[in-house]
Amino acid sequence: MEVVNKIDQENQAKIWKIIYGFSESLVLKCAVQLEIAETIHNHGKPISLSELASKLTVQPVNSDRLFRIMRYLVHMKLFNTEVSSLNGGIAYSLAPPAKYLIRGWEKSMVASILAMNDKDLLAPWHHLNEGLTGNCNAFEKALGKSIWVYMSVNPEKNQLFNEAMACDSKLVNSALVSECKSVFCDGTKTLVDVGGGTGAAMMAISEAFPNIKCTIFDLPHVIAESPEMPNITKISGDMFESVPSAGAIFMKNILHDWDDDECIQILRRCKEALPRGGKVIIVDIVLDVADSVHPFSKIRLASDLDMMLNTGGKERTEKEMKKLIDAAGFASYKITQMSAVQSVIEVYP
Fold first, then answer.
1. Active site annotated at which positions (predicted)?
2. Is the pLDDT confidence value at 294 over 90?
3. 91 - beta bridge partners?
4. Nearest CA among 126, 37, 44, 144 for reference residue 305
């Protein structure tokens, strides 16, 4: 019998794992759509396959197919199995990461899972090779118009997109208000969130720091769909033309949407709107390409490609971020790390 070439086997396995990488995302999406995590959580104890099948949102359920999906989810370490004390069969329970699949929890990632795996919003990834020319916007190639125009004329996708952004905001906000209090407790009295979306960030900041008067600023169609929020003002406009004046200007996941020249223009509008002693607070990914062991290292690199495909923007290293800050006429900056994908960059005139 021929001896198995271990190295060849490992290399093939690595490529096959990458080929089937899509399966984990789509099985995860399926689990969210079926509300599997909620069903097990609400059951209050490990649940048998038949009990799980009877409670799912899709009926009737083919038990064999559900078993095979659950087997894959267990392999993904999202759910655990144990022997049922009642009949000796398999019972399923939540593994620690599964709590992020439960709707209603402040750190739920359901909205991001659904948006990132939406068939249309995945389409630009199929044009990654064409984007190498530098003249092709993959989102436009896939869907016929820029991401901003597309969202403005597709309310259902815009809602999906905004819910995903709000989901990300909740994850970031939790770290921001608990780990970066000094960013806001420095005498800041007014704060405007440029590109504030549905206002998730401002709601968290307003609740944590009630002495700060908060405003969200975004495009008219975004502001029109944002909820009414107590103690928060809403203003519509275009950040490339002007930004409302405030003691601090806040931008979360904004600069990574744009190329360098556009970022410099946005930062200049912010600088014009700042009073003496004001600052810009940027919450964005800061790439450290040498750090391959950080839990978020792969996610940050993937986000960079996501920006390249969808908006023509990019995630930046500290050196690249400093280049923008200097070009916009600011004097200094300070970076604070937190337990989120993004970092906080305070920029001073």
1. 256 (proton acceptor)
2. no
3. 48, 82
4. 126
Contact 339, 179 (CB under 8 A): yes
Q: Per residue in 154-212, pLDDT tens?
A: 989 988 988 888 888 788 888 888 888 888 888 899 999 999 887 888 888 999 999 99
Q: How confident is the model at residue 220 (pLDDT cuts 50, 70, 90)?
A: confident
Q: How far is CA 148 from the centre of its chain?
A: 17
**Pairing mode, strands 332-336 and 343-348:** antiparallel
Within 13 Å of residue 219, how many CA atoms lie on the same side as its CB? Answer: 10
For residue 168, give the amino acid letter: D
221 in active site: no
Active-site pick, 75, 221, 256, 294: 256
Report the pLDDT value the prediction gives residue 1, as an integer from 0 to 100. Answer: 41
In a domain, 260, yes or no: yes
Residue 110 pLDDT greater than 80, yes or no:
yes
Q: Are residues 63 and 196 in the same domain?
A: no
**Do 179 and 313 belong together in one domain?**
yes
Task: Provide the token pair at 150.
Answer: 């597309």
In a domain, 27, yes or no: yes
218 CB neighbour count, 10 Å cutoff: 24
Top pLDDT among 42 and 88 is at 42
Residues 175 and 85 in one domain: no
Domains of the chain: total: 2
Helix-strand-coil split of the chain, %, nearest 5: 50, 15, 35
